[in-house]
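Complex 330.
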Amino acid sequence: MSETFTAMMLEDVDGKPKAGFRQISRSDLPDHDVLVEISHSSLNYKDGLAVSGKGRIARRLPMVAGIDLAGTVVESRSAAWKPGDKVIVNGWGLSETEWGGYARFQRLKPEWLTRLPDAFSMEQAMAIGTAGYTAALCVNALEDWGTIQPGKGEVLVTGAAGGVGSTAVSLLSAKGYTVVASTGRAETHDYLRGLGASSFLDRAELAGDVRPLQKERWSGAVDSVGSTTLANVLAQTVYGGAVAACGLAGGADLPGTVMPHILRSVALIGVDSVHAPQARRDRAWQTLADHLDREKLAAMTEVHKMSELPDLAGKILAGAVRGRIVIEIA
Ligand code: NDP
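Predicted structure with NDP bound:
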């Protein structure tokens, strides 16, 4: 098939990955078993790092960027999938070691595909995307730990106005938890209140010196910021509580002590979405199907064209994106 289509490619320029739009054809795609025609992708923080060239996300080049995709199976050499099946892919090394979702067609391994939940359109599934599905993994992890209870205590969400944060606020409030939103953007308070936040904490209050044990406040927390923020959140978590940590928007370091863990039995639960097993993914998508309010999802979503990716990448790294960005694949 010689028809060409546009892809956002990362290529080696003077030893560094550089992003640009390229025309490719189906014969350029990797030789995996399932060909998918992509209708939507999304923009995550990691996509911002890849497209801007500010982070080394791709581990081989050339690489089609985009860690998420939603589309329809066109051809399949796997018995598990047939033409017409509607599917999503989140992670699995897309944009890192495997070609990703910023292209009209992609060939993928059958085991990377998740059936599009009946509850969502492709656009809605990408409005959730890796960020939203990771928020659901975090909420499930906290509930499995067992110390957060609806109507009792406060659950903190850091980076609240971002993609992970917005979805976490919506999910937790829909499940009846009292949600405190930590944000550096006071102008997002009305938006976050609309998603279900009951009060706010300026992110600067979590960015200062880390005293090992502070006043116990959070029965649980979802953290997408890392660094001093995470260390302070751990030091403010109640006896036996847990923090689900998934991100590093504020830094990859963790300048704390073991005190919250050894004196208050506070748990730090690491959450990875990229290689999460299929059963955990299915459960996270079920949590989203059951509890994510569709009007709130619409309120946190903007839809953009693929041509806008370079600008949008700069915006998400600057912390200037509110909620989630869906990318329409032309
Ligand atoms: P967004 O950019 O949408 O959200 C990040 C938010 O973090 C911002 O909106 C901002 O929130 C806050 N923030 C940004 N910079 C800083 C800073 N310097 N100090 C403190 N807070 C800051 O990104 P995503 O929601 O897509 O991703 C968030 C993080 O989670 C990223 O690090 C990403 O890589 C990670 N992630 C990890 C996954 C995993 O599998 N473990 C999966 C998905 C995401 P506000 O304006 O409200 O203060």
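Residues 44-46, 130-131, 134, 159-165, 183-185, 203, 224-225, 229, 246-250, 271-274, 316, 319, 321 surround NDP (CB under 6 Å).
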